[in-house]
Write a structure and sequence with these properties.
Number of helices: 8
Order of helices and strands: EHEHEHEHEHEHHH
Radius of gyration: 16 Å
Distance between the termini: 44 Å
Helix content: 40-55%
Largest sheet: 6 strands, parallel
Strand order of the largest sheet: 3-2-1-4-5-6
Structural class: alpha/beta
Strand content: 5-15%
Length: 169
């Protein structure tokens, strides 16, 4: 399981993710850096939780491609780009139930949502995804690819953004 976020942004709720998995059998990789990292690392680093610090985009893609599940526990976001990165990498995604994350999902039910701030709900969501049969996981990955193809192609997003900007100028 992988969690990616800025440690300088408390609303990313990285501590809540760590609370949910600390001392479990679920291998947890926490990617990111910031002033809160040393505090969380002292509290949670151990046999099942590893902190990578900052990684390059190439390394992030590699880590995502090796991970089964991406978790995003943010209480607010402008947009859930990390969710798209996870889905595009083949991860199943568990995310907090906030508008930005729902927007990324577009009603596809590809993302497993949990209550914001609830470490037990996060753990439960991840366990549910881990217990899925391989065939069901593959169906979700196929739906994720369809979601990205239909709604999240960068050329189309850029074209729509350009139209919006032209209309207000």
């Amino acid at each position: 399981m992988i969690c990616i976020g800025r440690f300088d942004a408390p609303y990313k709720n990285i501590d809540t993710v760590c609370d949910g998995f600390f001392g479990t059998d679920i291998q947890t990789l926490v990617v990111g850096d910031g002033k809160l990292r040393p505090v969380l690392e002292r509290r949670y680093a151990g046999k099942n939780i590893q902190f990578t610090g900052y990684v390059s985009e190439a390394k992030k893609r590699e880590l995502l491609s090796r991970s089964k599940i991406l978790v995003s526990a943010s209480s607010k976001e402008g947009f859930g780009i990390t969710l798209l990165e996870g889905l595009a990498s083949g991860c199943l995604v568990a995310a907090s139930d906030i508008p930005a994350h729902r927007f990324v999902d577009q009603g596809s039910n590809v993302i497993k949502f949990f209550t914001v701030g609830d470490s037990k709900a996060i753990r439960s969501s991840v366990i549910e995804l881990l217990r899925l049969p391989n065939a069901e996981r593959e169906k979700i990955r196929q739906r994720a690819r369809a979601l990205i193809t239909q709604h999240w192609q960068w050329r189309e997003i850029a074209r729509k953004t350009e139209l919006i900007l032209e209309s207000v100028v």
